[in-house]
Every structure is written in C-alpha cells, then in structure tokens.
Design brief:
6-stranded mixed sheet, 3-stranded antiparallel sheet, 4 helices, 23% helix, binds xanthosine-5'-monophosphate, binds magnesium ion, Hxn_phspho_trans
Length: 188
Amino acid sequence: MDAGDMGPALKEVLITAEQLSKRTEELAAQIDADYAGRELLLVGVLKGAVMVMADLARAMHLPVQMDWMAVSSYGSGTKSSGVVRILKDLDADISGRHVLIVEDIIDSGLTLSWLVGNLKSRDPASVAIAAMLRKPSSAQMDIEVAYTGFDVPDEFVVGYGLDYAERYRNLPFIGTLAPEVYGGNTSR
Ligand code: XMP
Ligand code: MG
C-alpha cells in the first residue's frame, strides 16, 4: 500500500517501511547490548504498539518474554489528562524483573509517565521505555525514554499500529493525516 491507495485522507508518507525496519534493527541491537545476560520482559501497550512489538522482538537476539497492557486515558475533550484506567492488566507478576515498555508514540508523555509509576510500584528490577515515535510536546515532561525511533512533527500521524478512529493501523509506513480529516487538533 502507498499513500495514494488510502485516498485523499492521507497527506504524505513521513517514514517509509524501509526506514522503520532499519531503525528497528538499530534499536534491537542497542537493547540486546544493554540487557545482555539479563532476562527481559517486553510490555506492549495495546493497540498501537502491536507492530513495533512484533518487529522489535523479532529483530532482537536476546530471548525475551512479552506481555500486554491496555490503558485508556481519561481526558476532558481532546487532551490526554494523565488520569489513566487499566482496561487490561499484565498477565504476570513483574516483581524482580527487568521491564521494557514498548510504545508506538510519546506525545504529552502523560500516559507513559503514569504507566511507569504504576509498573514501578510493583517492585520490578528496572523499568525503561522504548517508543518508536516522539512528538515535540514530550520534551515538556520529565520522562526518560531510553530508546526512540524517530522524532515526528506535531501533526497527527497514522500507520504502523497508529490509528485514526481505528483506521490506518495496518499501513506499513507512518503517514500524516490531512488536517481536514481530524480538524487540525493533534491532541487526543
Ligand atoms: P500522551 O499524550 O499521553 O499520549 O503521550 C500518547 C498516546 O496518544 C496517542 N497519540 C496518537 N495516536 N497519532 C495517533 O494515532 C498521533 O499522532 C498520536 N499522538 C498521540 C497514542 O495512542 C499514544 O499512545
Ligand atoms: Mg497508544
């Protein structure tokens, strides 16, 4: 699929499938090196991180385990408020384990900082974050993202797991949505 197949809703391809795959290999090599000799649990955040998780885990050489969480951020209107509700919790106890949260995108950082706090309260050996994309607004939050794929502009992006109203998740690339589709407000 390319941008043209999606009709007029897609503005442009921002990151190609090849770029995603190359960057994923680089991140996987870094994570392999950083966690060598340790057992790592990858925690994917549903649903957006499905593609990142699948590709990152396969690009790694360390044996990893995978678990998933689904959260929903309560917001008044379109902004993420940082008040988060767990829709699906982890299957297993993480105490004493090395945890790497795998996310599609960090925007305001509110969801991830809540998640880090929540997971840390379960007494893991460590908690770190890998996010394929990072928006400029995340710089305002004091949150450390150990592994990031790409910086993206403050536009609404879709594809590679990211959706707009549950559509576009299966695009193999990251594209920007035409502002007329989402009303120009990039927060949600
Ligand atoms: P915060 O602001 O808490 O929110 O860091 C992160 C979550 O917001 C969603 N998000 C997006 N989803 N295109 C999307 O499809 C975007 O451009 C975008 N920006 C933020 C996403 O669910 C992420 O987990
Ligand atoms: Mg998400």
